[in-house]
Amino acid sequence: MDHRFFPSTYYYTFGPHETALRLKPGDRLVTDTVDARGYDCEGNSIPESMRQQSEDTEYYRANPLVGPFYIEDALLGDTLIVKILKIELNRDYAWSKNNSNFGSLTEEGPGKRLLLNQPMEEQYFRWILRPGQNSAVLELKKSRLRRIEIPLHPFLGSIGVAPRYGRVETSLSPGEYGGNMDCVESKEGTTVYLPIFVKGGYLAFGDVHAAQGDGELSGTALETSAEVTLEVDVIKGKAIEWPRFEDKENIMVAGSSRPLMEAYKIAHVEMISWLVSDYSFDREEALQVLTQVGKCRVGNVVDPKYTVVAKFPKKYLP
Fold it and tell me: pTM for this structure?
């Protein structure tokens, strides 16, 4: 069944919140996301009534999420399949910024300064999006190069399910449930596999990036809104530990932790387990082949946990 969903609430956490919509395996979903600050396709800020709120706490208002979507027949120990069928940018600009208290080149943190020196000045940048030319343009005011044009590669910065052990996690952070991985692999044409830790899964997503380099160095990509089309399914009785991805060229695993080396290890250990369980590799031989043909990308080095994606070319699969 096809569903056209119009959000009434955007969440700032991954968890088993009130169900936005129930989906059955095989269903398709079309919905709109807002950007990382909560601005829609018209450039308008979503109203307070549409933002997750609580009388007992406050939320860090970054990366508003659409959902959560309850997937029928999804049980603890199953795997959720999410096919990203389409990510259509629906705004003619994206914003980015150099943050004063956030990013990979600082020991500062959101909401507070941890150093004695003054933070760098916060600076916003407006990129013009040209989907027809598959490009984004930035006018440079201070550099010798007055204008730069880069290719678009839209993807979901955040996609995940309710975390294990009854946890609720901020939309700013990634983990074994997926979350804010900032992985460019979460693009149109990719299939995402997510572990089910809570009955129904509670899929949520958002934070579309029009483009981003490895690591999201300054802490902010080309933040924009989009219309997203997904298809969901469930693999019964198959448990995975970390998010997996598949496109035409590669199978991939995302690991999230700190320090960065820990995320690297998680991604590659899980990749070896995947090669052994699904592709009949011997464990030691899988390590050897992955050592020689594997690739990896850094999703982010700015979030509460860093993310590394291990890649294995499908042409070497049996």
Answer: 0.93
Alpha-carbon distance of 65 to 35, in angstroms, equals 10
Residues 6+ apart with CB under 8 A from 226: 32, 33, 87, 88, 89, 90, 154, 208
SS3 283: helix
pLDDT digits (tens, 9 = 90+) for 24-44: 999 999 999 999 999 999 999
Q: Count how many Cα atoms sit within 13 Å of the Cα of residue 181 in the half-sphere of its side chain.
A: 33
Side-chain half-sphere CA neighbours of 220 within 13 A: 23
Domain ranges of the chain: 2-91+152-316, 93-151
Cβ atoms < 10 Å from Cβ of 61: 15
Three-state helix/strand/coil letters over 136-189: EEEECCCCCCCEEEEECCCEEEEEECCCHHHCCEECCCEECCEECCCCCCCECC
Q: What is the pLDDT of residue 142?
A: 82
- Candidates 141, 122, 196, 180; CA nearest to 299 is 180
Amino acid (one-letter) located at 207: D
Q: Place domain 2-91+152-316 in its CATH homologous superfamily.
A: Acetamidase/Formamidase-like domains (2.60.120.580)
Read off the pLDDT of residues 68-108 as tens digits, 9 standing for 90 and up: 999 999 999 999 999 999 999 999 999 998 777 666 566 55
pLDDT (tens digit, 9 = 90+) per residue, 294-306?
Answer: 999 999 998 889 9
Please name which of 240, 246, 248 lies closest in space to residue 277, comparing C-alpha atoms: 240
